[in-house]
């Protein structure tokens, strides 16, 4: 323990402060001067001891002056008795706090020594000395618990670790004090900030990283191979971008309105299994997004999987035999011309709309005395019973941007080289927005088997992979021969043709 | 996405005056539009004459007979309106048949419209000649524009 005392003495030489007031060191010479002046000017006619008050301004360090003054000058003054008692108690408390501070420092140093291990103790002490020279003692709650001497920093939990020397939060009192110091002296000592000693912080960080790295290994990936499709199997879908609408005429002369859906680098991004996540699903990602435009957690997900950054990630529930490994590309060849799909999209945003457009209300007549309510909803309730408006009452509001699915859409044309899927009809959403494609669930499994879908997905042959252009290649010309179109076996005009044969019409030439 | 980028690279250069006014999203939408246009270009007819509103034309329509044969029927009339562009371009064709006015909206690229033959050009100062519906006979005539030859109107032969 003698060693500890030596250490304590060595530390106190670096001007540790027992309480939150550091300004007193600067008041010390001033206090002496003021006391001396008051002693000189003091006269026996005065009732109170002016010197006492003057020295009190520089409490507590000026107790060094006050206590001998009070003892040797006019003990009979009743005021002096009270002040003397208070000053002595205060001085003892200050001394006790100083001692506690030294003990805390020693405990902290012991903790660092046991954690640091091989690093030289002399270095740590030197770093401590360096720290305490600039800033006062900094202690964690660990040290305080291990030391078991502290009484001051008990209210703070683990990791809170408030600095002992500034036990209360920076309050307006401290701020006012700083302002006062600046106003009076033109200077205020620097504010103390909490900071763990660098060796301890580094050790804690290393331990946490080590724990994270030793987590369990990822599960095995499913294999990529062609499997037979059963009645209960469910294929994965696709994320596509709505590129626009066109029209075409098929071989019977029937006009077919088409929506062009472009599949932009759709890849399997994650696999979900029943053991780990409670369901069998595949996560698909599509599009591109810059790393700086996404949050670090998102970016970390793609970096960990070794995939390019995707703009949109969505999940499809699949059957167990339709699982694919991470990184598999889903192309337009995944779909077959003539099959039926469900297309899910978010509808166009219409903004704040009235009741007639939003809910299809009929409004009121345009004339016959209707005043200012031609498109209004009219009544929205009953009377005293129920005496309220029901929740979910159809009223004006924001319309659009809702998720809607169009079922059983026909895939008219598939352009495998350009990754385009032409769907007959309309699809929710504006141009440029992403939609989700899925094999239609409204079909009979027997009918679905006749489509000839690639299961679990279209796996490109090595020749196709070589022939495909590189991802960034702009000059490659897509092969128009890879387009497959659905041919309607039945002629829809047949019945008209047959009917016109009943009444043969002759057209006059030149009319 | 190579096609997408190719579209952006190959579309006509936008003047600097307009480039700053359109946002990135609008430019992307326009690129998608041009992509869709180019994709449907293979389905368009290449030998269409450049016929406008006011022209008298002879239109050859495909008519299916009961036996399954397809025959071409020629009709004379005036083009009184045109709508749309590219694959969805339609012409409104009007003729008076046995005293009754008949209008026909023809998608120009449909296989049912087999031939459009230019006859003469009328001087019109409107884009839509719906006023002709109230006129019959001599008041429904259009003044001819002299000097327009059918060779000029027909589509240029592509080598």
TrEMBL record, chain A:
Family the entry assigns: Belongs to the universal ribosomal protein uL3 family.
Please give the InterPro entries that the UniProt record associates with this protein: Ribosomal_uL3 (IPR000597), Ribosomal_uL3_bac/org-type (IPR019927), Transl_B-barrel_sf (IPR009000)
Q: Where are the transmembrane segments?
A: none
Record's superkingdom? Eukaryota
Instruction: Please provide, alphabetically and separated by semicolons, the GO molecular function terms listed in this UniProt record.
Output: structural constituent of ribosome
The record's annotation in Pfam families points to: Ribosomal_L3 (PF00297)
**A GO cellular component annotation in the UniProt record:** mitochondrial large ribosomal subunit
The GO annotation for biological process reads: translation
Keywords from the UniProt entry: Ribonucleoprotein, Ribosomal protein
Which protein are we looking at? Large ribosomal subunit protein uL3m
Q: Which organism is it from?
A: Volvox reticuliferus
Does this entry carry the keyword Iron-sulfur?
Answer: no
From TrEMBL, chain B:
Identify the InterPro entries for this entry.
Ribosomal_bL19, Ribosomal_bL19_CS, Ribosomal_bL19_sf, Translation_prot_SH3-like_sf
One of the entry's Gene Ontology molecular-function terms is: structural constituent of ribosome
What does the record list as coiled-coil region(s)? Answer: none
Q: Which organism is it from?
A: Volvox reticuliferus
State the similarity comment: Belongs to the bacterial ribosomal protein bL19 family.
Biological process, per Gene Ontology: translation
**Alphabetized Pfam families for the sequence:** Ribosomal_L19
SUPFAM superfamilies from the UniProt entry: Translation proteins SH3-like domain (SSF50104)
Q: Which GO terms describe its cellular component?
A: ribonucleoprotein complex; ribosome
Q: What NCBIfam families would the database entry show?
A: rplS_bact
The name on file for this protein is Mitochondrial ribosomal protein L19
Alphabetized UniProt keyword annotations = Ribonucleoprotein, Ribosomal protein
């Amino acid at each position: 323990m003698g060693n500890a005392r030596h250490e304590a003495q060595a530390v106190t030489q670096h001007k540790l402060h027992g309480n939150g007031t550091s300004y007193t060191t600067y008041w010390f010479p001033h206090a002496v001067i003021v006391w001396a002046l008051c002693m000189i000017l003091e006269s026996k006619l005065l009732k109170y001891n002016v010197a006492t008050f003057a020295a009190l301004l520089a409490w507590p360090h000026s107790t060094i002056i006050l206590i001998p003054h009070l003892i040797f000058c006019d003990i009979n003054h009743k005021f002096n008795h009270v002040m003397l008692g208070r000053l002595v108690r205060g001085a003892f408390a200050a001394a006790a706090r100083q001692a506690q501070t030294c003990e805390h420092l020693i405990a902290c140093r012991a903790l660092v020594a046991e954690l640091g291990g091989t690093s030289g103790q002399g270095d740590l002490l030197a770093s401590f000395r360096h720290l305490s020279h600039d800033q006062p003692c900094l202690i964690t709650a660990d040290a305080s618990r291990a030391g078991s001497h502290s009484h001051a920093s008990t209210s703070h939990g683990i990791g809170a670790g408030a600095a002992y020397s500034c036990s209360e939060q920076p309050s307006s009192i401290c701020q006012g004090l700083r302002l006062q110091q600046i106003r009076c002296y033109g200077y205020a000592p620097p504010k103390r900030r909490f900071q763990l000693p660098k060796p301890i912080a580094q050790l804690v960080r290393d331990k946490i990283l080590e724990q994270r790295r030793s987590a369990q290994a990822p599960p095995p990936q499913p294999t990529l191979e062609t499997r037979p499709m059963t009645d209960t199997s469910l294929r994965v879908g696709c994320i596509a971008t709505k590129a626009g609408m066109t029209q075409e005429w098929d071989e019977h002369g029937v006009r077919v309105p088409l929506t062009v859906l472009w599949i932009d680098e759709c890849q399997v991004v994650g696999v979900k299994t029943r053991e780990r996540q409670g369901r069998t699903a595949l996560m698909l990602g599509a599009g591109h997004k810059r790393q700086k435009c996404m949050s670090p957690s998102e970016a970390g997900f793609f970096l960990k999987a070794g995939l390019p950054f995707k703009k949109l990630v969505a999940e499809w529930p699949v059957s167990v035999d339709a699982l694919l490994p991470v990184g598999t590309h889903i192309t337009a060849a995944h779909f077959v011309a003539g099959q039926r799909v469900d297309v899910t999209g978010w509808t166009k945003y219409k903004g704040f709309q009235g009741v007639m457009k939003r809910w299809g209300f009929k409004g009121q007549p345009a004339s016959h005395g209707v005043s200012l309510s031609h498109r209004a909803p009219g009544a929205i309730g009953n009377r005293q019973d129920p005496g309220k408006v029901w929740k979910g009452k159809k009223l004006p509001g924001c319309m659009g941007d809702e998720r809607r699915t169009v079922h059983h859409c026909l895939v008219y044309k598939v352009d495998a080289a350009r990754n385009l899927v032409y769907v007959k009809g309309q699809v929710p959403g504006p141009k440029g927005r992403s939609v989700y494609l899925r094999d239609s669930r409204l079909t009979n499994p027997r009918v679905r088997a006749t489509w000839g879908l690639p299961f679990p997905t279209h796996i490109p042959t090595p020749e196709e992979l070589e022939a495909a252009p590189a991802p960034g290649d702009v000059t490659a010309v897509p092969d128009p021969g890879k387009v497959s179109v659905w041919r309607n076996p039945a002629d829809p005009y047949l019945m008209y043709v047959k009917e016109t044969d009943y009444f043969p019409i002759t057209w006059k030439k030149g009319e | 996405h190579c096609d997408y980028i190719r579209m952006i690279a190959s579309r006509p250069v936008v003047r600097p005056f307009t480039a700053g006014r359109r946002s990135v999203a609008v430019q992307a939408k326009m690129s998608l539009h041009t992509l869709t246009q180019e994709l449907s270009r293979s389905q368009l007819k290449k030998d269409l004459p450049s016929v406008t509103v006011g022209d008298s034309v002879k239109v050859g329509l495909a008519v299916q007979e009961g036996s399954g044969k397809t025959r071409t029927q020629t009709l004379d009339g005036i083009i009184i309106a045109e709508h749309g562009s590219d694959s969805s371009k339609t012409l409104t064709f009007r003729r008076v048949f046995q005293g009754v006015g008949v209008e026909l909206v023809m998608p120009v690229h449909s296989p049912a419209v087999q031939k459009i033959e230019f006859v003469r050009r009328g001087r019109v100062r409107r884009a839509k000649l719906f006023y002709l519906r109230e006129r019959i006979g001599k008041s429904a005539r259009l003044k001819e524009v002299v000097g327009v030859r059918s060779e000029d109107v027909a589509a240029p032969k592509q080598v």
